[in-house]
């Protein structure tokens, strides 16, 4: 009897998901975070109505990403576009789901890979034995420079934060010296006791000021800065995107350190302790990082997807008039969706299926921080 019921239910499932029968609401309220985003949302709403796209769009102003999560949860809003770490918090802490995700390459939902880069001449270097080594990070609390490398160190049991969850202290004790721009900023170090050695591979500006600043005055700040830090021999390893080295070579960066960069002198360190060439990032990376997704209530997954599908059919490839994946003319980039979006793809599975096993494992390392 029970099995028959289950079989009947399974037969009905595809029908339910195609028709979204359980939900009659026709308006989608989008939670926006800035004037520019609100304006693009209003333009989309007007253009969708003008082109007779079934359903309607409303724009609701949120104070912050967390506020948008609360609003979606209590029904004040229906959807918002969020980046990977916020998708995790929305799913874990608020029980929210994903209706869609961005595809940037037209194939999958991966935005970029985080890789560990070293000088080829550093021959006795392994990602599994980074204790006392020196490291270069684009910035404190960034995905590339902090979340992924520190999550990896936890995942491989090289560090353990215990009950106290004091990541900076543990990371400072682990590495010899590092550059983590911003780690001593009051915002990230309210008690002023984050380890000093996490700034010792930083160099500041031309006049030795702004050392460890969380901005470009610190010349080792950002992904290019982290690469420079390794190229100049101050760090053994830099945590950067798979594209960073190519974005800063062949004259694309005119600073003298970049003009001197020899790609043959660099290599990737793989998470299993081996090494690889710079173009082997597909098999040799710390994590892939998923593109942004559209956060909704679980029961709204289908309805919001159907509306988005209609919107992108009309505005996704527009060569004139309103364009869904462009923010030109609004004075800011990546409004509603990343400008790099090729198309939106449906997310049928859970939010962790979108985040993928490696990025989910990375984020799990931070759960002790009182993620919710
Ligand atoms: C359509 O979008 C454009 C911007 O691309 C905007 O100027 C125009 O006002 C919008 N049309 C409507 C009816 O909202
Ligand atoms: C829904 O949540 C938002 C954000 O926390 C809050 O401002 C609003 O008052 C709530 N609305 C309702 C109806 O509970
Ligand atoms: C590390 O991550 C993998 C998935 O990439 C997971 O299977 C494993 O359990 C994680 N290990 C620890 C110690 O968290
Ligand atoms: C735009 O057109 C290309 C090529 O026909 C197609 O692959 C892509 O899916 C379209 N994008 C959207 C958002 O419809």
TrEMBL record:
Keywords: Secreted, Signal
tRNA-binding recorded as keyword: no
Compartments (UniProt record): Secreted
A matching Pfam family: Transferrin
Domain Transferrin-like: 28-368
Alphabetized SUPFAM superfamilies for the sequence: Periplasmic binding protein-like II (SSF53850)
A GO-annotated cellular component: plasma membrane
Segment forming the signal sequence: 1-20
Ranges that cross the membrane: none
InterPro entries hit by this protein: Transferrin-like_dom (IPR001156)
CDD domains assigned to the protein according to its UniProt record, in alphabetical order: PBP2_transferrin
Biological process terms in GO annotation: iron ion transport; otolith development
General function of this protein: Transferrins are iron binding transport proteins which can bind two Fe(3+) ions in association with the binding of an anion, usually bicarbonate.
Protein's UniProt name: Serotransferrin
Organism for this UniProt entry: Poecilia formosa
Organism ancestry: Eukaryota, Metazoa, Chordata, Craniata, Vertebrata
């Amino acid at each position: 009897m029970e099995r028959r019921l289950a079989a009947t239910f399974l037969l009905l499932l595809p029908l339910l998901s195609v028709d979204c029968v359980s939900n009659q609401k026709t308006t989608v309220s989008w939670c926006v975070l800035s004037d520019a985003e609100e304006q693009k949302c209003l333009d989309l709403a007007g253009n969708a109505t003008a082109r007779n796209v079934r359903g309607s769009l409303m724009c609701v102003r949120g104070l912050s990403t967390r506020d948008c999560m609360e609003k979606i949860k209590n029904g004040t809003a229906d959807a918002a576009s969020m980046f990977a770490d916020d998708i995790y918090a929305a799913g874990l802490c608020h029980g929210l789901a994903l209706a869609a995700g961005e595809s940037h390459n037209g194939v999958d939902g991966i935005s970029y890979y985080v890789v560990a880069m070293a000088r080829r001449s550093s021959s006795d270097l392994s990602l599994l034995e980074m204790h006392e080594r020196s490291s270069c990070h684009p910035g404190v609390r960034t995905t590339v420079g902090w979340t992924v490398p520190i999550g990896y160190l936890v995942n491989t049991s090289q560090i353990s934060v215990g009950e106290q969850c004091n990541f900076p202290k543990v990371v400072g004790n682990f590495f010899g010296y590092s550059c983590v721009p911003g780690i001593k900023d009051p915002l990230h170090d309210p008690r002023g006791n984050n380890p000093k050695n996490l700034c010792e591979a930083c160099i500041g500006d031309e006049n030795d000021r702004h050392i460890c600043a969380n901005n470009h005055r610190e010349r080792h700040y950002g992904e290019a800065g982290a690469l420079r830090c390794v190229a100049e021999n101050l760090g053994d390893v830099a945590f950067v995107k798979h594209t960073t080295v190519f974005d800063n070579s062949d004259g694309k960066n005119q600073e003298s350190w970049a003009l001197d960069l020899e790609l043959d002198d660099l290599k990737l360190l793989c998470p299993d302790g081996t090494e690889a060439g710079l173009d082997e990032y597909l098999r040799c990376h710390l994590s892939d990082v998923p593109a942004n997704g559209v956060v909704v209530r679980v029961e709204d997954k289908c309805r919001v997807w159907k509306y988005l599908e209609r919107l992108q059919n009309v505005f996704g490839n527009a060569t004139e008039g309103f364009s869904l994946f462009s923010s030109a003319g609004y004075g800011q980039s990546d409004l509603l969706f990343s400008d790099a979006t090729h198309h939106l793809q449906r997310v049928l599975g859970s939010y962790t299926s979108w985040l993928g096993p490696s990025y989910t494992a990375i984020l799990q390392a931070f759960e002790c921080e009182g993620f919710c």
